[in-house]
Amino acid sequence: MMNDDLFLSSDLLTDDLAENCRTLLDQQWKTWELLRRNYTSLDSVETKTFELDGTTVRVQHNPARIASTAARVDDEAIRARPCFLCVQNLPPEQRAIAYGAEFVFLCNPYPIFPEHFTISHREHVPQRIEPALPVLLQMSRGLEGEYVVLYNGPRCGASAPDHLHLQTGNSGFLPLEESYERLVTDAGEKVADRGGVLVFAVRAGGRRFLVIEADEMDEAAAACRSVLRALSEMTSTDEEPMVNLVSWFEDGEWKGGVFPRARHRPSCYFEEEPRRLVVSPAAVDLSGVVITPRSDDFHRITKDDVRAIFEEVLLPPQVFDHLAVRVKANIERS
What is the pTM of this model? Predict the structure, then answer.
C-alpha cells in the first residue's frame, strides 16, 4: 500500500511534468539534509575531458556515487538487504510525485546530473525493460527538451536489479546528445530504414552501440524490441539481455542509444591495488560521463583506460556486427 504522505500536495503540481520534477527537487532540497549536501557537493565535483575518435568523454570524480559504483548485486547480497526502492524502506524525508498508476518520481539523493530523478515502480517487481518501454518513451516525450531518460539492465548497472526503475536527468548533460548527429553521420552504418524508423550501428571511441530514431512511439518500441529479441536469440537465455538505454525526444522524434553489453564490470575493477580502477559503467558512463568515486582513480585514469573499459564491457566487434545483421532481419520481418 502506498503511503499518501509520500506524495507532494496536488496543489503544488501542474500539467507540466518537468516543472513538477523541479518542484519536487526544490521541496526535497529544503527538507532533506542528505540530498542537499550531495547536490551542493556537485559544485565541487572535479571533471576532466578526453577526446576519443572525435567524441567527447568527461570523467567525473563523484565520491557520493561509491555506494552505487561498488554495489554488490549478486543474488545473495540482494536477498540480504531490504530493497531501498520499496516505499516501506524509503527515508522518512523522501517525497514523490505520481506518474500514472504504476510509477513514482523520486529525487536521487546521490546525483550525477544537476537534477537527477529515479522513476520507481510502485510494486517490488524485477528490473526488466520490456514492461517499462512504453513508460520510458512516454516519459521521453513528456520531458521533451528538459530531461533524458535512462535504463540500466539488472546485470549491467542497476544497483537495484530486483526493483523496476528508470532514471532521468538534465538534457544537454550527456556528451552523446551533443555528438549524436556527428556520430550518426560519421560513424554510423544504417542497419534499418522502415516505417518511420531508422536504426544505425555506431562504432566510435571504443564504443559499439545502436541508435534508434522514430517519429511514432509504437515504432520506437517495436525497434527496441527487435534489438532485445536479436540479443536474446544470440545468448539463448531466459534472462534479459545485458543492455543499457538512453532516450530523449527532439524535433518530433524519439532518439536514443541502445548499448548491448558483454560484461558488467571491466577487468580493471578487479585488479589489485594500486592498479585497480573502481569504474562500473552504466548508461551515463556509456553516454560519455564516466564516474570515478575515488580521487586516486580520477587522477590516474587515462584516455586509453577509458577506451579499454568501453571495449571490454560492450559487445566485441564481430558479435556486434552479427547483432546488427539480426536486428535488420527482425525489423524487416516485423
Answer: 0.96
